[in-house]
Amino acid sequence: MSGTVRVLVAEDQSAVRAGLVLILRSAPDIEVVGEAADGEQAVALARELRPDLVLMDVQMPRLDGVSATRQVVTEGLADVLVLTTFDLDEYVFGALRAGAAGFLLKNTEARQLLEAVRTVARGEGLISPAVTRRLIAEFAAKPSREPAADLSVLDRLTRREREVLSCLGEGLSNAGIAERLDMAEATVKTHVSRLLGKLELRSRVQAAVLAQELGI
Protein backbone atom coordinates (compact mmCIF):
# COMPACT_ATOMS: atom_id res chain seq x y z
CA MET A 1 0.00 0.00 0.00
CA SER A 2 1.25 3.47 -0.82
CA GLY A 3 -0.34 6.91 -0.91
CA THR A 4 -3.69 7.85 0.54
CA VAL A 5 -6.26 5.31 1.73
CA ARG A 6 -9.67 6.24 0.32
CA VAL A 7 -12.46 5.34 2.79
CA LEU A 8 -16.26 5.21 2.54
CA VAL A 9 -18.00 5.40 5.92
CA ALA A 10 -21.33 3.53 6.19
CA GLU A 11 -23.12 4.14 9.50
CA ASP A 12 -26.81 4.92 10.06
CA GLN A 13 -26.39 6.95 13.26
CA SER A 14 -25.41 10.44 12.12
CA ALA A 15 -23.58 11.35 15.34
CA VAL A 16 -21.48 8.17 15.25
CA ARG A 17 -20.79 8.63 11.55
CA ALA A 18 -19.70 12.21 12.09
CA GLY A 19 -17.33 11.09 14.84
CA LEU A 20 -15.79 8.41 12.64
CA VAL A 21 -15.34 10.86 9.78
CA LEU A 22 -13.73 13.41 12.10
CA ILE A 23 -11.23 10.84 13.33
CA LEU A 24 -10.40 9.56 9.86
CA ARG A 25 -9.92 13.05 8.46
CA SER A 26 -7.40 13.81 11.20
CA ALA A 27 -4.93 11.48 9.48
CA PRO A 28 -2.99 12.90 6.50
CA ASP A 29 -2.83 9.49 4.80
CA ILE A 30 -6.58 8.77 4.95
CA GLU A 31 -9.25 10.43 2.81
CA VAL A 32 -12.99 10.08 3.46
CA VAL A 33 -14.50 9.97 -0.03
CA GLY A 34 -18.12 9.40 0.95
CA GLU A 35 -20.68 8.76 3.67
CA ALA A 36 -23.64 6.36 3.62
CA ALA A 37 -26.58 6.19 6.02
CA ASP A 38 -27.78 2.70 5.04
CA GLY A 39 -26.63 -0.45 3.29
CA GLU A 40 -28.15 0.31 -0.10
CA GLN A 41 -26.47 3.69 -0.20
CA ALA A 42 -23.18 2.08 0.87
CA VAL A 43 -23.25 -0.33 -2.07
CA ALA A 44 -24.28 2.41 -4.52
CA LEU A 45 -21.49 4.73 -3.36
CA ALA A 46 -18.94 1.91 -3.39
CA ARG A 47 -19.82 1.29 -7.04
CA GLU A 48 -19.60 4.99 -7.85
CA LEU A 49 -16.55 6.00 -5.81
CA ARG A 50 -14.50 2.77 -5.78
CA PRO A 51 -12.90 3.43 -2.37
CA ASP A 52 -10.03 1.34 -1.06
CA LEU A 53 -12.03 0.44 2.02
CA VAL A 54 -15.59 0.60 3.34
CA LEU A 55 -16.01 1.10 7.08
CA MET A 56 -19.34 -0.75 7.42
CA ASP A 57 -21.77 -0.81 10.33
CA VAL A 58 -23.47 -4.21 10.48
CA GLN A 59 -26.86 -3.01 11.69
CA MET A 60 -28.35 -0.56 9.20
CA PRO A 61 -31.78 0.06 7.61
CA ARG A 62 -32.91 -0.82 4.06
CA LEU A 63 -30.00 -3.22 3.54
CA ASP A 64 -28.10 -4.61 6.52
CA GLY A 65 -24.33 -4.41 6.70
CA VAL A 66 -23.86 -8.14 6.13
CA SER A 67 -25.77 -8.10 2.84
CA ALA A 68 -24.06 -4.87 1.82
CA THR A 69 -20.67 -6.39 2.63
CA ARG A 70 -21.45 -9.43 0.50
CA GLN A 71 -22.34 -7.24 -2.49
CA VAL A 72 -19.30 -4.99 -2.13
CA VAL A 73 -16.90 -7.93 -1.80
CA THR A 74 -18.52 -10.08 -4.49
CA GLU A 75 -18.32 -7.21 -6.97
CA GLY A 76 -14.72 -6.51 -5.97
CA LEU A 77 -15.51 -2.88 -5.14
CA ALA A 78 -13.43 -2.53 -1.96
CA ASP A 79 -12.20 -4.20 1.19
CA VAL A 80 -14.71 -4.05 4.04
CA LEU A 81 -13.96 -3.39 7.70
CA VAL A 82 -17.12 -4.04 9.71
CA LEU A 83 -18.15 -2.05 12.78
CA THR A 84 -20.03 -3.59 15.68
CA THR A 85 -21.02 -2.76 19.24
CA PHE A 86 -20.21 -6.22 20.59
CA ASP A 87 -17.13 -8.28 19.82
CA LEU A 88 -19.23 -11.43 19.45
CA ASP A 89 -22.25 -9.89 17.77
CA GLU A 90 -24.02 -12.50 15.61
CA TYR A 91 -23.98 -10.05 12.73
CA VAL A 92 -20.19 -10.09 12.68
CA PHE A 93 -20.17 -13.82 11.96
CA GLY A 94 -22.32 -13.23 8.90
CA ALA A 95 -20.11 -10.35 7.79
CA LEU A 96 -17.01 -12.55 7.95
CA ARG A 97 -18.82 -15.22 5.96
CA ALA A 98 -19.67 -12.50 3.44
CA GLY A 99 -15.99 -11.73 2.95
CA ALA A 100 -15.28 -8.82 5.31
CA ALA A 101 -11.56 -8.20 5.74
CA GLY A 102 -11.91 -7.69 9.49
CA PHE A 103 -13.96 -6.16 12.26
CA LEU A 104 -13.69 -3.31 14.71
CA LEU A 105 -15.53 -2.37 17.88
CA LYS A 106 -17.27 1.00 17.86
CA ASN A 107 -15.66 1.94 21.16
CA THR A 108 -12.18 1.56 19.70
CA GLU A 109 -9.88 4.49 20.42
CA ALA A 110 -9.12 6.93 17.61
CA ARG A 111 -5.51 5.80 17.23
CA GLN A 112 -6.56 2.17 16.95
CA LEU A 113 -9.26 3.02 14.40
CA LEU A 114 -6.72 4.74 12.17
CA GLU A 115 -4.26 1.89 12.48
CA ALA A 116 -7.02 -0.65 11.74
CA VAL A 117 -7.87 1.17 8.51
CA ARG A 118 -4.20 1.18 7.50
CA THR A 119 -3.87 -2.48 8.45
CA VAL A 120 -6.74 -3.59 6.24
CA ALA A 121 -5.53 -1.35 3.41
CA ARG A 122 -2.18 -3.17 3.57
CA GLY A 123 -3.99 -6.47 3.12
CA GLU A 124 -3.61 -7.49 6.78
CA GLY A 125 -7.18 -8.59 7.43
CA LEU A 126 -6.80 -9.80 10.99
CA ILE A 127 -7.04 -6.98 13.48
CA SER A 128 -6.20 -7.34 17.18
CA PRO A 129 -5.10 -11.00 16.99
CA ALA A 130 -6.15 -11.86 20.56
CA VAL A 131 -9.71 -10.64 19.99
CA THR A 132 -9.83 -12.08 16.50
CA ARG A 133 -8.73 -15.54 17.68
CA ARG A 134 -11.57 -15.47 20.19
CA LEU A 135 -14.01 -14.43 17.50
CA ILE A 136 -12.83 -17.05 15.03
CA ALA A 137 -12.92 -19.83 17.62
CA GLU A 138 -16.43 -18.83 18.70
CA PHE A 139 -17.55 -18.53 15.09
CA ALA A 140 -16.14 -21.91 14.10
CA ALA A 141 -17.95 -23.53 17.03
CA LYS A 142 -21.33 -22.17 15.93
CA PRO A 143 -23.68 -24.70 14.36
CA SER A 144 -24.12 -24.00 10.67
CA ARG A 145 -26.55 -25.10 8.01
CA GLU A 146 -23.63 -25.37 5.65
CA PRO A 147 -21.81 -28.72 5.38
CA ALA A 148 -18.76 -29.18 7.56
CA ALA A 149 -15.46 -28.26 5.96
CA ASP A 150 -13.88 -31.15 4.08
CA LEU A 151 -10.22 -31.86 4.83
CA SER A 152 -9.75 -32.84 1.21
CA VAL A 153 -9.64 -29.15 0.28
CA LEU A 154 -6.14 -29.13 1.76
CA ASP A 155 -5.00 -31.33 -1.11
CA ARG A 156 -5.02 -28.21 -3.26
CA LEU A 157 -2.32 -26.61 -1.10
CA THR A 158 1.42 -27.09 -0.88
CA ARG A 159 2.95 -28.01 2.47
CA ARG A 160 4.07 -24.43 2.99
CA GLU A 161 0.63 -23.06 2.13
CA ARG A 162 -0.92 -25.39 4.69
CA GLU A 163 1.49 -24.06 7.32
CA VAL A 164 0.54 -20.49 6.43
CA LEU A 165 -3.16 -21.40 6.60
CA SER A 166 -2.63 -22.84 10.06
CA CYS A 167 -0.96 -19.60 11.17
CA LEU A 168 -3.87 -17.60 9.79
CA GLY A 169 -6.14 -19.75 11.94
CA GLU A 170 -4.19 -18.58 14.97
CA GLY A 171 -4.81 -14.95 14.05
CA LEU A 172 -1.19 -14.20 13.16
CA SER A 173 -0.31 -11.19 11.03
CA ASN A 174 1.99 -11.49 8.01
CA ALA A 175 4.89 -10.39 10.18
CA GLY A 176 3.97 -12.98 12.80
CA ILE A 177 3.75 -15.72 10.19
CA ALA A 178 7.10 -14.68 8.72
CA GLU A 179 8.71 -14.99 12.13
CA ARG A 180 7.00 -18.29 12.95
CA LEU A 181 7.91 -19.95 9.64
CA ASP A 182 11.25 -18.19 9.17
CA MET A 183 10.48 -16.63 5.80
CA ALA A 184 10.33 -13.16 4.28
CA GLU A 185 7.13 -11.18 4.83
CA ALA A 186 6.79 -10.70 1.07
CA THR A 187 6.86 -14.48 0.66
CA VAL A 188 4.11 -14.83 3.24
CA LYS A 189 1.94 -12.39 1.27
CA THR A 190 2.49 -14.49 -1.85
CA HIS A 191 1.51 -17.71 -0.05
CA VAL A 192 -1.61 -16.06 1.42
CA SER A 193 -2.67 -14.79 -2.00
CA ARG A 194 -2.16 -18.19 -3.60
CA LEU A 195 -4.01 -20.18 -0.95
CA LEU A 196 -6.95 -17.78 -1.06
CA GLY A 197 -7.16 -18.35 -4.80
CA LYS A 198 -6.87 -22.11 -4.54
CA LEU A 199 -9.50 -22.32 -1.80
CA GLU A 200 -11.78 -19.78 -3.54
CA LEU A 201 -11.90 -17.53 -0.48
CA ARG A 202 -12.46 -13.78 -0.49
CA SER A 203 -10.37 -12.81 2.52
CA ARG A 204 -7.73 -14.02 4.95
CA VAL A 205 -10.36 -13.88 7.67
CA GLN A 206 -12.36 -16.51 5.80
CA ALA A 207 -9.15 -18.54 5.54
CA ALA A 208 -8.67 -18.24 9.29
CA VAL A 209 -12.21 -19.45 9.92
CA LEU A 210 -11.67 -22.38 7.55
CA ALA A 211 -8.47 -23.31 9.39
CA GLN A 212 -10.43 -23.38 12.64
CA GLU A 213 -13.18 -25.48 11.10
CA LEU A 214 -10.64 -27.95 9.72
CA GLY A 215 -8.85 -28.12 13.06
CA ILE A 216 -5.42 -27.41 11.63
UniProtKB/TrEMBL annotation:
Residues 6-121 form the Response regulatory domain. The modification 4-aspartylphosphate is found at residue 57. InterPro entries: CheY-like_superfamily, NreC/VraR/RcsB-like_REC, Sig_transdc_resp-reg_C-effctor, Sig_transdc_resp-reg_receiver, Tscrpt_reg_LuxR_C, WalR-like. It comes from the Bacteria. SMART domains: HTH_LUXR (SM00421), REC (SM00448). Keywords: DNA-binding, Phosphoprotein, Transcription, Transcription regulation. PROSITE patterns: HTH_LUXR_1 (PS00622), HTH_LUXR_2 (PS50043), RESPONSE_REGULATORY (PS50110). Residues 150-215 form the HTH luxR-type domain. Pfam families: GerE, Response_reg. Signal peptide: none annotated. This is Response regulator transcription factor. It comes from Streptomyces venetus.
